[in-house]
Specification:
Rossmann fold; 2 domains; two-stranded antiparallel ribbon; six-stranded parallel beta sheet; alpha/beta; 13 helices; about 270 residues
Length: about 270
C-alpha cells in the first residue's frame, strides 16, 4: 500500500458540479412514474413528460431546500410533502425536526428506488443530451485532475456510480472503481446501506488508518462532522460556493477547516 502521497477525498454534487437541474429533472420523471405506474415511457413520451419549464418551476421552490439534501430520495420527500417543506429552514436541526415528523423507513425505501430507477431511465432516454443538465465547475475539475496526479484521490458521493462516471468521462477523467464510493457501490462492492461517513472511515481504514493526515473537500458539513472524532488529523475544505449552509459549518466548530469561496481557489488549498 502506497502511503507516500497525501490522501484526498472529494465530494461531487456542489463541489465539482452544480447538479440541481439534473436532480430536479429526475424528480419530474419520478413524479410522473409515481402517478402513472402502468404507462410505458420511451424517448418520445419523455418529451411530453419533461421540459425545462417544469424544472425551472421546481427550482424556484426547491433550491432553498438543497442544503438539506443528503440522498436522492430526499428530493421526493420534499416534492411529495410540499405542505411540510414549502418554507424557509434556517438550520439542519430545524429541517430534521420537520423531516422526522413524517419519516418512515418503508416509504423512504420506496422513494429511493423510484428516484434512482428514474435517474437510470433518464440517462437512457436522453442519451447525449443528459450531460446538458450539469454545470461543471471548471476550477474544481482542474483541481481534481491535479489531485489525482499527485495524491491518493477518492470520490465519495451520494450520487450513483454510473452517472458519476459519465460526467467525469466528459472531462476525460477516469477514476479507478476502487477509488469511487457512491450511493450504490463501496469501491467494487455493493453498498448495502453504508452512509457517507461510514464510507469515509472505510477509505481511511483500507488506506493508511484514521490517524493519518488527509483532506476532505465538501460543501455540506454532515459527513465531516460525523467522522471528526475518529479523525484527529483531518483537514476539511469547505466549498462555500456549493449547497451547504455556512451557519451549519460554524455550529459544527470543526478544527482544521478552511473555507473556499470559488472553485478556482480549491487548487491553493489542495496543493
Amino acid at each position: 500500500m502506497d502511503t507516500s502521497a497525501q490522501l484526498c477525498i472529494w465530494d461531487f454534487d456542489g463541489v465539482l458540479s452544480d447538479s440541481l437541474t439534473e436532480c430536479l429533472s429526475v424528480v419530474v420523471l419520478a413524479a410522473f412514474r409515481h402517478a402513472n405506474p402502468d404507462i410505458s415511457i420511451d424517448s418520445r413520451a419523455l418529451v411530453e413528460i419533461y421540459n425545462p419549464e417544469k424544472v425551472h418551476e421546481l427550482d424556484r421552490w426547491m433550491r432553498p431546500l438543497r442544503p438539506f439534501v443528503a440522498t436522492g430520495q430526499d428530493y421526493l420527500w420534499q416534492y411529495f410533502h410540499k405542505d411540510k417543506f414549502d418554507r424557509r429552514f434556517t438550520s439542519m436541526i430545524e429541517y430534521q425536526e420537520c423531516y422526522r415528523s413524517i419519516y418512515n423507513q418503508s416509504l423512504d425505501q420506496t422513494y429511493k428506488r423510484l428516484f434512482y430507477d428514474s435517474r437510470k431511465m433518464l440517462i437512457k432516454l436522453m442519451g447525449k443530451k443528459y450531460m446538458s443538465l450539469f454545470t461543471t465547475y471548471q476550477g474544481a475539475v482542474h483541481a481534481l485532475r491535479m489531485s489525482m496526479g499527485r495524491h491518493r484521490s477518492f470520490v465519495c458521493t451520494a450520487r450513483d456510480r454510473q452517472a458519476l462516471e459519465m460526467i467525469l468521462a466528459r472531462h476525460r477523467i477516469e477514476i479507478p472503481r476502487d477509488r469511487i464510493y457512491s450511493q450504490d457501490f463501496c469501491a467494487d462492492e455493493e453498498n448495502r446501506g453504508r452512509s457517507k461517513a461510514e464510507q469515509i472511515l472505510e477509505i481511511l481504514d483500507y488506506h493508511g488508518g484514521r490517524q493519518q493526515p488527509f483532506v476532505i473537500v465538501e460543501d455540506q458539513v454532515k459527513a465531516p462532522a460525523q467522522v471528526a472524532a475518529d479523525c484527529p488529523n483531518m483537514k476539511v475544505v469547505f466549498a462555500a460556493y456549493g449547497y451547504g449552509l455556512a451557519s451549519d459549518w460554524e455550529d459544527a466548530g470543526l478544527k482544521g477547516m478552511v473555507q473556499v469561496n470559488s472553485p478556482a481557489d480549491l487548487i491553493f488549498e489542495i496543493f
